[in-house]
Design a protein that fits this description.
The protein is mainly alpha-helical. The protein has a domain of 64 residues. It starts with 15 loop residues before the first helix and ends in a 22-residue tail after the last helix.
Length: 98
Amino acid sequence: MMSDHVEVLGPPPPNVEKSQTMYHNIRPNVPEEFRDDPLYAKASAQDHLDAKAAKQARRDHRAAMVVAAKANQDRRGREDVGLSAEEVPAKKRKAPKK
């Protein structure tokens, strides 16, 4: 019934960031007989630049979010949200059963 309306999709395009990570971080730990697998292939120069730009943009965005969160805390008049080691309440031990 529903099989008439189902389209068969092709595989998604390769993720250049993931392929770069696989080549540089994972491939050195892969046994020699599997290193020629396309999964561990070196990305092209353009893919390398694209992945590097995406990582840099993500890093910049995260830094901007930290600044915005800090400004929001300052605007609300709060200090640090987290508790320091001295402020964390000690866990109570359960009394041993007799």
